[in-house]
Specification:
Layout (H helix, E strand, L loop, with lengths): L1 H17 L6 H22 L7 H23 L7
Helix pairs in contact: 1-2, 1-3, 2-3
Length: 83
């Protein structure tokens, strides 16, 4: 449980940096990272690509976090793209 939270927190941090300016700040991105870790595990598992080690967990959590931070960021900014 603690490991999953730490991986999700790291993934949220990475997602915030990958999507510069689209997140909810450090704490918000970490929370979305934990949720993104669950999303990433479900998505990769459904594709038969479930993670089998720490790096795989971090990659799937980061992908899930990027998706969540992106979509929640779009909602936060009214759906417009602020590039």
């Amino acid at each position: 449980m603690i490991g999953a939270i730490l991986i999700g927190a790291a993934a949220g941090y990475f997602a915030g940096h990958i999507l510069r300016g689209r997140g909810y700040g450090a704490l918000g991105n970490i929370v979305l990272g934990v949720l993104g870790g669950v999303l990433g595990d479900l998505a990769f598992g459904a594709l038969g690509l479930g993670p089998h080690n720490l790096i795989g967990d971090l990659i799937s959590a980061t992908v899930g976090s990027v998706v969540l931070v992106y979509f929640f960021g779009k909602k936060k900014h009214g759906g417009r793209d602020d590039d």
